[in-house]
User: What shape does this take?
Amino acid sequence: MNKSEEKVLEASVLLERARVLSAILTRQYFGQDVATPADLWKISGYFFDDAKVVAETITDMVGDAEELLNQAL
Assistant: This one.
């Protein structure tokens, strides 16, 4: 496997991890049933902090994958 192929493979792994994290973010944070004001605890506090960390991680992974793909070309 040459260097370009390795970079593309590494980028695909990063993108798959980002996809999985995105699904987790959607399910655990945005998928919460907030029907009444009493349910607001489901999307506040540590839920919000966790969602922010996951979103930042996804953004970093996608940026790294983009850089790898640019290097492969």
Notes: The mean pLDDT is 90. Residues 3-72 form one domain. Helices lie at 3-30, 46-72. The chain has one domain: 3-72.
